[in-house]
Amino acid sequence: AYMIDVLKLKIPVIGKLYHRICLSRFTRTLAILFNSGVPILDSLDMTAKTSGNKVIEKAIMEAKSSLKEGETIAEPLSNCPIFPPMVVSMISVGEKTGALDQMLNKISDYYDHEIETTVDSLASLIEPLLLGFLGVTIGIAVIAMYLPYFSIFEHIGG
């Protein structure tokens, strides 16, 4: 399952979208739990289980272990390439200023916007391809319908 999740993240175009969705889900869930007063260790535990990706789950569990040892959340996340520097630095700032939930919400809002933009651009890319496919399919169907008529006319005329 871990290797499948690694491969999902490496698929061209879709992997990038999947990565953003996972990051948005992670930050939004953690922000909601943290804001609701759930202890941070329990929040990380629940967030890891709902992340939807084993790579992110492993990184979150490493962050939880480091947090138990007195480190910040951002330190172990910075060692994991799945978390971009922007995410790590915003989490770090949130921890230092005591506004972690606000920073997590800002990260999630940013990724939600990125996801929306990516989906819109993918939709505009897929539309012409779909029209071309439908055109070819209809063309083949029309040719298949009229081909018997042409062969009948050849036998009558020739």
From TrEMBL:
Membrane-related topology note: Multi-pass membrane protein
KW Ion transport (keyword) present: no
Main location: membrane
Type II secretion system protein GspF domain sequence ranges: 26-148
Keyword set, alphabetical order: Cell inner membrane, Cell membrane, Membrane, Transmembrane, Transmembrane helix
Ranges that cross the membrane: 129-149
GO CC annotation, single: plasma membrane
Keyword Cell membrane: yes
Location relative to the cell: Cell inner membrane
A Pfam family matched in the record: T2SSF
InterPro entries given in the database record: GspF/PilC (IPR003004), T2SS_GspF_dom (IPR018076), T2SS_GspF_sf (IPR042094)
UniProt cross-references to PANTHER family, sorted A to Z: GENERAL SECRETION PATHWAY PROTEIN, TYPE II SECRETION SYSTEM PROTEIN F-RELATED
Family to which the UniProt record says this protein belongs: Belongs to the GSP F family.
The protein's name in its UniProt record: Type II secretion system protein GspF domain-containing protein
Lineage, broadest ranks: unclassified sequences, metagenomes, ecological metagenomes
